[in-house]
Design goal:
eight-stranded mixed sheet, Aminopeptidase, Leucine Aminopeptidase, subunit E, domain 1, binds ligand BES, binds zinc ion, six-stranded mixed sheet, alpha/beta, about 20% strand, binds manganese (II) ion
């Protein structure tokens, strides 16, 4: 998709569709009203500007705009509603095969949100039925577009779609090795330093937990390190982004029920998220030192699989009794977290589809943030707010660690009770970061949506990519 700007009046546009973001408080838009020759009073009865509402007006006489697409953004135009607006405009344009889509923008600070939304809504993930890829050929931003970094918006939008594409890929096509190969090839092409650790390397570095999770599959596990360390990097900090990359989670011997097990291909969404952020950071040449570790394995039941009751040792020597082989994410993350601290991380953020319990707590609306550092958690929440993604912090009191302490080991990987499953999982992870400021993002409830909404089509959402990019940008 080509993205251009148009600073003249919209009447001089020649496009297939022109999309207008309208709030519930709207007055007849200047220009729109005259174009519609006073039709506004009639339209206003049918169109209230509610979030997600839309109305298409065809071929206004004497105009080069073939259709006006009115889209409601609710009470106010903010990062959330404008991203949804862009996404919805792209999907409506796609349905009517509009190749040239123009969009009215009134706030230069929010243009990026709209552009990301359009790229998001225009991306047809493996759409076998209607063909792959994008439908819109040119996006024309019309109005207040001064000082807007369109190139950055395009890189970020592409990164989100890259993550969504990987998350959507079925597990037969994308196992740990295939994902590691993709990360290495795309990472190197973007200018990142890449290191891939295979089973032999994992054994010599003591990554007992990643190996244990991977041992039930004929497809071996991998750990991938991606680093961006430009000469002009600001400060002496080194942020590490850690992604859970279970390319398929059957549960292992603690097998999951068949019901919707097919969705467990998205259990690598954390790794896809961090990979996408790294690619965009490099492509934008952000002056920040940042690395990612992707912990990749397939969790399968077999004669060689990890058993409930087995005791394993993570990279820092802590022993873990495996109570439930379906609590595998925290195991692979444990090794990656320890490795990050060894490599000198000054800040760690992990993203993981870690617990079903997070959907009970927060539904599909908020990502759960759990942290040993309130300032870092607050920074993540603020970054999310500014790009239009919701994060909610959960408590981390010491009491939550008690059910994770082992009888014959330091830790157990699952608590005896089901209570506070998202928090007890995070307390487990905390045991592997030493004192490093760290935040854990549980994206199990938000990385995939079964229902299309105004903001998101069905499937992989790419949640957290935009927020983490904003955070990395803030460090620059
Ligand atoms: N990958 C799952 C969590 C998950 C569930 C992600 C539903 C997306 C949708 C994770 O590995 C898991 O199985 N967690 C268990 C932990 C339990 C055994 C302590 C869970 O949440 O049930
Ligand atoms: Mn699991
Ligand atoms: Zn899992």
């Amino acid at each position: 998709m080509k993205i251009t700007t148009h600073t003249g009046p919209w009447e001089t546009l020649s496009v297939d569709a022109l999309a207008w973001p309208l709030t519930t408080a709207m007055q007849p838009q200047r220009g729109l009203d005259s174009a519609l020759a006073g039709l506004w009073s009639e339209i206003g009865a049918e169109f209230k500007g509610k979030a997600g509402e839309s109305l298409v007006l065809h071929r206004p006489p004497g105009e080069h705009v073939r259709r006006h697409v009115l889209i409601g953004v609710g009470k106010q135009a903010d990062a959330f509603s404008l991203h949804a607006f862009g996404s919805q405009a792209a999907r409506i344009a796609g349905k009517m095969s509009a190749k040239r889509l123009a969009i009215i923008v009134s706030d230069p600070a929010q243009v990026r949100r709209v552009v990301e939304g359009v790229l998001f809504g225009d991306c047809h993930l493996r759409a076998v039925k209607d063909g792959n890829g994008s439908a819109i050929e040119e996006l024309i931003l019309c109005g207040a577009v001064e000082n807007c970094d369109i190139a950055a918006a395009q890189i970020d939008g592409d990164a989100i779609n890259y993550a969504r594409e990987l998350i959507t890929a079925p597990a037969n096509e994308l196992g740990p090795v295939e994902l590691a190969d993709r990360a290495a090839a795309d990472g190197r092409a973007a200018g990142l330093e890449v290191e891939v650790f295979d089973e032999t390397a994992l054994r010599s570095m003591g990554a007992g937990a990643i190996l244990a999770v991977g041992q039930g599959s004929v497809r071996p596990p991998r750990l991938v390190r991606l680093s961006w360390a430009p000469q002009n990097a600001k400060g002496s900090g080194h942020l590490f982004l850690i992604g859970k990359g279970i390319t398929f989670d059957s549960g292992g011997l603690s097998l999951k029920p068949a019901d919707s097990m097919e969705k467990m291909k998205y259990d690598m969404a954390g790794a896809a998220t961090m990979l996408a952020v790294m690619l965009a950071a490099a492509r934008r040449r952000l002056p920040v030192r940042v690395s990612a570790l992707l912990a990749l394995a397939e969790n399968m039941p077999s004669g060689t699989a990890l058993r409930p009751g087995d005791v394993i040792a993570a990279m820092n020597g802590k022993t873990i009794e495996v109570i439930n082989t379906d609590a595998e994410g925290r195991l692979v993350l444990a090794d990656a977290l320890v490795y990050a601290t060894r490599l000198g991380a000054t800040q760690i953020i992990d993203a993981a589809t870690l617990t079903g319990a997070v959907s009970v707590a927060l539904g599909s609306v908020n990502v759960a943030v759990l942290s040993n550092n309130d300032a870092l958690a607050g920074h993540i929440r603020a970054a999310g707010q500014s790009v239009g993604e919701r994060f909610w912090q959960l408590p981390m009191d010491e009491e939550y660690l008690a059910p994770m302490r082992g009888d014959i080991s330091d830790l157990r990987n699952a608590s005896a009770e089901r209570k506070a499953g998202t928090i007890t999982a995070a307390k487990f992870l905390e045991q592997f970061v030493s004192e490093t400021p760290w935040a854990h993002l549980d994206i199990a409830g938000t990385a995939w949506t079964d229902k299309a909404t105004a903001a998101y089509p069905k499937g992989a959402t790419g949640v957290a990519v935009r927020t983490l990019l904003r955070l990395v940008e803030d460090l620059a």
